[in-house]
Amino acid sequence: MSSTTVTQPCWFFKWIADDTPFTNENLRIPDTLRQVLQAHGNITWILLKNQARVWPIQIVGHRFGVGWEEFYIDNHLMDGYQILLASETSCIFEVLIFNKEHTSVFNTYSSQNALPPPFYHLPAWLATSCFPGIWFDRTTVGEFTIACDLEDDMVKAFQDRLQPYFEDDNDQQIVFALQEHEWTIPIVDGVMDDEALVDFIAELDLFIGEFIAVLMTKELLARVIVFDSEGGEKMYSWY
């Protein structure tokens, strides 16, 4: 197996813990994101992008500030939802939102906002950096998440979530891509090979409190991101 070493997280994960944006838990940014922003508690700004909308959000003392309520309301967030953030730069993030069933949510917005109102006082370089996202493959046909609980059967969880994408009467294969490594798993009669799937899941070295996101394409390429319990992308080194 070839070696892969990735040191800088690009993905971040946040649980929504209540139906209001102003609880302490909902205002806190993911712990790992604090390290990337390197604001050290000072005021800074980030941009969150979802489809055609952009939300400038102030970060103060490792908490969401001005702009967070608008983002929360516009995206109909509620208790049990999850937010996936993919960094374009250290302060610009593409967003995927998942509902209580761990399935991605597509929102239709009443208007598009290219730039924030003047009172936000954004730095000029940030206010004009709304370029298209580079992280998401727009050929995805489905996105979902899986919670890591060692008492649950992770093999069954993968089989159940992915089975709708397979053809029952045709032998196929699926490729799981994680960071720079790939695993190819045979599919027979619409079911992934259990032994190969067990080997793949073992490579993920999962712990309770971690989370998996899967972005699925019609070509049966599944991009996998594993998040640690602090909401940051889990870094791997394979040899």
The ordered H/E elements are EEHHEEEHEEHEHEEEHEEE
Low-confidence parts: 1-6, 114-138
Strand content: 25-35%
Give, in spatial order, the strands making up the sheet with the most strands: 2-6-7-3-4-5
CATH classification class of the largest domain:
Mainly Beta
> What is the tally of helical segments?
6
The Rg value, from CA coordinates, equals: 19 Å
Number of β-strand runs: 14
Could you report the average pLDDT, rounded to the nearest whole number? 79
Structural account:
Helix content is 18%, strand content 33%. The chain is of the alpha+beta class. The strands form 3 sheets. It has a 6-stranded mixed sheet. It has helices at 24-27, 31-37, 68-74, 124-127, 154-162, 194-204, and strands at residues 4-5, 11-15, 44-50, 53-60, 63-64, 82-87, 92-98, 140-147, 172-178, 181-188, 191-192, 211-217, 221-227, 237-238. The protein is globular and about 55 Å long. It is built from 6 helices and 14 strands. It folds into 2 domains: 11-98, Beta Barrel (At1g16640 B3 domain), CATH 2.40.330.10; 124-227, At1g16640 B3 domain (Beta Barrel), CATH 2.40.330.
Which features would summarize this protein structure in a list?
B3_DNA-bd, TF-B3 domain-containing protein, DNA-binding, 239 residues, alpha+beta, nucleus, 6-stranded mixed beta sheet, disordered N terminus, 6 helices, 14 strands, At1g16640 B3 domain, globular, DNA-bd_pseudobarrel_sf
Summary, kept brief:
The protein has 239 residues and is α+β, with helices and mostly antiparallel strands. The chain has helices spanning 24-27, 31-37, 68-74, 124-127, 154-162, 194-204; strands at residues 4-5, 11-15, 44-50, 53-60, 63-64, 82-87, 92-98, 140-147, 172-178, 181-188, 191-192, 211-217, 221-227, 237-238. The protein contains six helices and 14 strands.
